[in-house]
Amino acid sequence: MEKRFQARRWLPVRSVLSAAGLIMLPLIVVALAVLQYRWIGQASEADRERMQIGLNTSVSQFLEDYRSELYRVCAAFRPEPGIVASRDWGQYVKRYDEWRRTTSFPDLAGDVFVWELEQNGGSRLIRVAMQSREVRTVEWPPELEVLRSTLEEQRRGLGDSRRRDVRLRAWTLHETAPALTHLLFQFTPPATPGERPQFRVDGFLIVKLNPSCFEQRLFPELTKRHFGARDGRAYQVAILNKENPAKLIYRSEPAISEAAVSSAIVQVDLTGPVPENYILPRPAPGQGRAEELGPPPVLVPGNEEESWQLVVWHRFGSLDAVVARIRRRNLAVSFGVLLFLTAALTMLAISTRRAQRLAELQIDFVAGVSHELRTPLAVICSAGDNLAEGVVDTKPQVQQYGELVRAEGRRLRAMVEQILHFAAGQTDRRYELHPAEMAKLVKGVLEDAGAAIQAAGFSVEAQIAPDLPQVLVDETAVKLCLQNLVNNALKYGGNAGWIGVRVNANHGEVRITIEDRGMGIEPADLRHIFEPFYRGRAAKAAQIHGTGLGLNLAARIAEAMGGRITVKSAPGKGSSFTLHLPAMKNGDQQRGEKV
Question: What percentage of the chain has pLDDT greater than the value 70?
Answer without folding.
Answer: 76
